[in-house]
Amino acid sequence: MKILESIVVAFQFLTRFYLPINVEWDTGNLRRSLMWFGLVGAFIGVILAGAMTLFNRFDLIPAVSAIIILLIWIFITGGMHIDGISDMADGFFSMRNKEKTLEIMKDSHVGAFGVITIVFLLLIKFEMLKEFIIIEKNVWLLILPPTIARIAAGFVLSFYETTKKSGLGYTFHSSDPRIFWAIGFIVTLIISSILNIKSLIFIGIAILASNLMALWAKKKIGGLNGDIYGAIVETVEVIGMVFICAV
Questions:
Q1: Pairing with 223, which of 53, 91, 156, 188 sits 20 to 30 Å away (CA)?
Q2: The whole model's pTM is what?
Q3: What is the C-alpha to C-alpha distance for residues 169 and 174, in angstroms, rounded to an integer?
Q4: Could you read off the pLDDT of 96-127 as tens digits, one per residue?
């Protein structure tokens, strides 16, 4: 039962899916949920791969397929990670001090840097999805970007401190979830290498990128918050799409 509860926590934390199971968001379930971050990403990837397979069967033109798949991708997460990278861009590129940067990130309005970041992010994902279809890549490789992105988010959630000593991110981090993240990471390594041995390179790049972003956040605002986690997810997903299309 504890395993099921931790899976539910992982899905409800990372997606907009509501599972009709009452669970306690206590320390135990939070730390165990880190094992399942990769599973949530794989679930998202399977939906995307299934959609692409269906659209290919109906011979939809690549651009139309790519747009629909991208919309599905956004719908699954409710766009919360996109909101995170937008807030991070607005705050970090404003070149203000820590307090002002955090204030800008909390502002519900999207600034110029946020808009530019969202546009570039969606354009890159769209182009990579379209290219993925055109060059006839194995559709199941689409599982990798969302899976590794959530493993990367789990990594920084486990190993880097938050900006404040309260909130869900702090509760996750303070629950000492590293061993559970490590279990999920090892399983992801094995499955990813089966899908494509070159994916191990992508995993290395993802961990490096998430480390660099976390260190940048630590320098700018003294730690990590929900916006940074979302930004890392989106950044690693984009890196993954480019990597898969390139190799």
A1: 188
A2: 0.94
A3: 9
A4: 999 999 999 998 889 999 999 999 999 999 99
Say which DSSP state 198 is in. T
Task: Round the average pLDDT of the chain to a whole number and report it.
Answer: 92
pLDDT at 172: 85
Rounded CA gap, 207 and 209, in Å?
6
User: What CA–CA distance (Å, rounded) separates 138 from 116?
Assistant: 31
- Distance, CA of 188 to CA of 68 (rounded, Å): 27
Q: Secondary structure of 23-65 in the HEC alphabet?
A: CCCCHHHHHHHHHHHHHHHHHHHHHHHHHHHHHHHCCCCHHHH
10 vs 172: CA distance, rounded Å: 11
Instruction: Kindly tell me if the per-residue pLDDT of 176 is higher than 90.
Output: no
User: Which of the 8 DSSP states describes residue 94?
Assistant: T
The residue type found at 126 is F
Helices marked H in the chain: 2-14, 27-33, 37-57, 62-77, 80-92, 98-106, 112-134, 144-159, 168-174, 178-195, 199-221, 226-246
Report residue 176 as tokens.
């000492």
Angle between helices 62-77 and 37-57 (to 10 degrees): 150
Give residue 16's identity as a one-letter amino acid code: R
